[in-house]
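User: Predict the complex.
Assistant: Input components as received:
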Amino acid sequence: MSAILEINGVTAGYGAAPVLQDVSISVPTGTICAVLGANGAGKTTLLRTLSGLLKPTAGQVVFDGQDLREVKVEHLIRLGLAHVPEGRGVVTELTVDENLRLGGLWRKDRADARRALDEVYQLFEPLQRRRSSAGHQLSGGERQMLALGRALVARPKVLLLDEPSLGLAPRVTAQIMALLRQLRDDTGLTVLLVEQNVRSALSVADEGVVMSLGRVVVSTSAEQLRGDDELRHAYLGF
Amino acid sequence: MTATEEVENTRTQGATTLARASTVRGGAFGRTLVRHAVYALVAIVVLIVLTSALAGTGNTFLNYQLAMVCAYLCATAGLTFLTGINGQLSLGHGALMATGAYGAALTIRALADRGIEAVWAVFVALLVGVLAALVVGAVIGAAAARLRGPYLAGVTTVIAIVVPAITTTFDGIFKGDQGLSFVTPSPGAVPALLSNEEWQAYLGIGCAVLVMFLLANLISSRFGRQFRAVANDEVAAKLSGINIARTQVLAFVVSAGCAGLGGALMAAITQQAAPGAYSLTLSLYLLMAIVIGGLGSLAGAVWGALLLVALPDLSTRITDSLELSPDLAQKLDGNLALAIFGLFLIIVMIVAPGGIQGLVRRLSGRLSARRRSAGS
């Protein structure tokens, strides 16, 4: 299976001290890859570097055969790389409907953009009910659905998800994880999932990457991570 | 019906509702367009009736004031679009009005020098004023797209100071502090039927309604969402594929065009363009006006424009009514309006943070709620 997203020796950070050091991860097409680690392991920085919000000082990111260093942030979505940032990334002053339409704004094929919008509404029942509510009126779970929905309206090939379980009830988290699995199976979506919630992330992931202090310490199948007690104790703390 | 069939059935129904919803949504913008067109027509009719009613009072100053409200409205609506919708603060819109005013003044004078004093010269002048402001707006906008908050406020303030200064520096073209004066061509063939002030009012109404119509449609279009998204959350907007810098420059250009039209109108109405009228104070007035009126909605811009004409008038009346020494009266004359404006701003911010329009919306909401409870 070919890798749709290749991270090769990326070093990045804020100011003098690098947060990521020589990180290499390969995400095979059509899989869910969970990046796990404690606070400060560099998980969010990794995603910010992937989507160009942060420029790497060394190394490269290749997405679908293209070096992302040459791509502007706002063009990533056109290539098929969608990033749902930490803390939901919902435009709070816009309504649910307007937020979702924002995701398909750049698309030339208006008819398909509308179809994608309808599909998202079918996927997320609560959004359908609240379509004219403003973003700031939504609950945490609804916001996460909205942020995910907006990314899906763009029909991405790869979804970068930053801590979707943050601040959500376990039941809602489980729903979102199940949805990711469904999307992978039905549409062949590739997901790079950054999580602190190791249990729920590993419950849907195919691959697992454990990061610690800005480095990749383990990169293996999710199944193995689930089974290896020693590894879990050492890096994931349970 | 088995349970599965039932589920299947509901799902199909759901799908049909969705399909219907999407077709309706497809025509939503068309309907908004029609609604805005109806509003514009109604506004034109009402304002034309108002103009002739004001002319009937015999006080020509009232129509002059109406024309000034329209000129200010072009600028406040443009500034509302920039600051309220796109989230970019501008303390330099007075300078953009000045650009429009000088563009129009120079055009009318140039045409008059060639013996052209037909009515169309006014429209050409307005157009030149808008174009001049668009160019200046694009330059400021390109700089503004890299700046945020206080830095943007600083740069735009400098523009507000520099532009009037340019007019005095290059006094060969701009005639220094005296400014450019001229006679605005008017349809003088039927002076008995149409006074100069009425003509100015009609001119203003036409421009203001056009600006409001265009901006209202722009805001409710899919580009409007883009402008609002950028104002609210740059990262989310960027990740949704929006080019932040381009959107911000575009907002500045559109806003500058509106301010330029406002300035050009003001020049055409007052028959002159002088730096004194477009000082930093005007820029501050414009910003205060849209905040008091209600930031973020075009209706707020209407309130703001009304205040810009009404409050200075009120302060003149106050100074006139008090028996003051000529020295004190003169001091008060220019400054009282600013003081009243400031006081008004403070009161509105405390009592109604949403501005006048926010207050109106709240009151009308409460009224309709009461009516509903009385009805049931």
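Residues 1-26 of chain B have pLDDT under 50 and may be disordered.
Let me know if you want any component modeled separately.
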